[in-house]
């Protein structure tokens, strides 16, 4: 039961772009809100919104969450989400890097040298080896010899001390006075993992807290959420909220004491977590979302790395994308662009480890052909929605985004996911699954729990389910793929 995926029905939320946590509706030009310049030119002046989709996860394994991260999802407590890359006011791309992709600039050197000076390690605080600057070695030597600075990994659980630091950080750095202990716990302590995973074992924490001396090839035992607490002279000065995944470390949030602003703790934490990634023999460091037209988020490019192409389930090096995409716009790249007709099949890709383009291929950004005003995605979705509706799965036609004709849905609008969303399994594939019988692989592999009635039952026959349940199941498949839907307990 501890490995079971327990989720709610998928939701789709819209809000005014002024409430976007990144742009706040303050972009310089109206066209900058649109996913493509061609959509701005073709729009009817409709208001771009902040559009997010996702689901509440009551239980999941770390392995499944790792897969979802590589589909573009992030979590806020127990809620897993990603944005609608066509309709949202900002394009949020999953970014990951590796320790060897980081170019140590003068800025990073200064951060590490300042850190060494501040914590005054034993000796005079200066390096004497005379060799080339190595940031991993610099962090290890500095912390090993420090007398007053230490960090400690521990379970991601609430304490008054942590909340006090969080409150101070939110108020002084983000001018946020609406927080409370409950919201802190929900945001940075709660998670969809089992109690055993959250608390871990003494063996896991002992090994993790001795990461500096782990041997090459030694497997890290810890998987799951963690709080790394930074202490200076026994005072809590920062907390790094992280998830340890099979493929790497995912940075969730970082809190620091404003009194230590001169330490550049944000930059320091990223460099330290890259060191930890290296020393614990993990592959990747996930830095959350990257938004290239947002100063609060585009700094992450300084650490190198690659962005997830949600349309193909492959990571693409940032250095290649700089020549292929415009800032703030949607992209999808292909080696063989002639094959791009309508949305690309995605279901099989979601069942396998995420791919990676190594930069050797000749690439072309095919986003206009697929998702532009004359792209093939929309007609495919119209045809598929009509066909699904004819066989009892109630998908209505929403012909175009941005103020074009849209059908009125009888359902609660928070459950209506648009028919074309980059990164979701296309409706055309959903139709093929139903017609070819592939969707029947969910029979006896999906469980429903009716929260109103208190009833629990297994899916026996997809064809005998109500139209609403059929649509809900298809939406789950769209969000996470057919293979990942097997074994789901769905809360209705």
From TrEMBL:
Domain of life where this protein originates: Eukaryota
GO molecular function: arginyl-tRNA--protein transferase activity
Group of enzyme by EC: transferase
GO cellular component, one term: cytoplasm
Entry EC number(s): 2.3.2.8
Record carries keyword Transferase: yes
UniProt keyword annotations, A-Z: Acyltransferase, Transferase
Domain N-end aminoacyl transferase N-terminal: residue ranges: 18-109
Domain N-end rule aminoacyl transferase C-terminal per the UniProt entry, residue ranges: 161-304
Pfam family for this entry, one: ATE_N
Record InterPro entries: Acyl_CoA_acyltransferase, N-end_Aminoacyl_Trfase, N-end_Aminoacyl_Trfase_C, N-end_Aminoacyl_Trfase_N
GO biological process: apoptotic process; ubiquitin-dependent protein catabolic process via the N-end rule pathway
Keyword field contains Cell membrane: no
PANTHER family in the cross-refs: ARGININE-TRNA-PROTEIN TRANSFERASE 1 (PTHR21367), ARGINYL-TRNA--PROTEIN TRANSFERASE 1 (PTHR21367:SF1)
Family designation: Belongs to the R-transferase family.
Protein name as catalogued: arginyltransferase
Higher taxonomy: Eukaryota, Fungi, Dikarya, Ascomycota, Saccharomycotina
């Amino acid at each position: 039961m501890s490995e079971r995926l327990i989720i709610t029905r998928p939701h789709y939320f819209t809000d005014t772009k002024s409430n976007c946590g990144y742009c706040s509706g303050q972009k310089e030009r109206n066209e900058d809100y649109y996913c493509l310049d061609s959509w701005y030119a073709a729009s009817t002046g409709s208001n771009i919104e902040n559009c997010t989709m996702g689901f509440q996860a009551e239980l999941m394994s770390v392995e499944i969450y790792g897969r979802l991260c590589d589909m573009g999802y992030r979590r806020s407590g127990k809620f897993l989400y990603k944005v609608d890359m066509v309709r949202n006011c900002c394009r949020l791309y999953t970014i990951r890097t590796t320790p060897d992709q980081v170019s140590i600039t003068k800025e990073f050197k200064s951060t590490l040298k300042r850190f060494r000076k501040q914590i005054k390690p034993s000796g005079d605080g200066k390096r004497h080896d005379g060799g080339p600057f190595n940031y991993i070695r610099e962090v290890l030597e500095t912390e090993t010899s420090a007398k007053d600075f230490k960090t400690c990994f521990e379970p991601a659980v609430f304490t008054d001390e942590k909340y006090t630091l969080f409150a101070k950080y939110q108020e002084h750095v983000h001018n946020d006075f609406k927080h409370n202990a409950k919201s802190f716990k929900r945001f940075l302590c709660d998670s969809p993992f089992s109690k055993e995973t959250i608390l871990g074992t003494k063996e896991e924490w002992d090994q993790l807290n001795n990461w500096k001396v782990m041997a090459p090839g030694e497997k890290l035992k810890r998987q799951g959420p963690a709080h790394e607490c930074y202490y200076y002279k026994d005072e809590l000065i920062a907390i790094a909220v992280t998830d340890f995944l099979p493929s790497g470390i995912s940075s969730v949030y970082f809190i620091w004491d404003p009194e230590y602003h001169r330490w550049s703790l944000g930059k320091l934490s990223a460099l330290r977590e890259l060191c930890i990634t290296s020393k614990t023999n993990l592959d990747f460091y996930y830095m959350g979302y990257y938004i290239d037209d947002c100063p609060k988020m585009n700094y992450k490019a300084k650490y190198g790395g690659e962005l997830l192409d949600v349309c193909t389930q492959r990571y693409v090096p940032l250095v290649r994308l700089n020549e292929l995409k415009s800032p703030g716009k949607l992209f999808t790249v292909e080696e063989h662009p002639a094959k791009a007709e309508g949305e690309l099949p995605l279901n099989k890709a979601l069942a396998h480890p995420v791919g990676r383009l190594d930069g050797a291929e000749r690439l072309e950004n095919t986003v206009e052909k697929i998702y532009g005003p004359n792209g093939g995605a929309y007609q495919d979705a119209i045809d598929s929605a009509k066909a699904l509706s004819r066989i009892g799965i109630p998908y209505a036609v929403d012909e175009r985004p941005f103020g074009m004709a849209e059908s009125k849905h009888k359902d609660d609008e928070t459950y209506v996911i648009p028919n074309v969303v980059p990164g979701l399994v296309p409706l055309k594939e959903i139709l093929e699954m139903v017609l070819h019988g592939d969707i029947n692989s969910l029979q006896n592999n999906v469980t429903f729990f009716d929260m109103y009635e208190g009833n629990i039952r297994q899916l026996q026959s997809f064809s005998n389910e109500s139209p609403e349940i059929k649509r809900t199941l298809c939406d789950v498949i769209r969000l996470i793929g057919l293979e990942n839907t097997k074994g789901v307990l769905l809360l209705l």
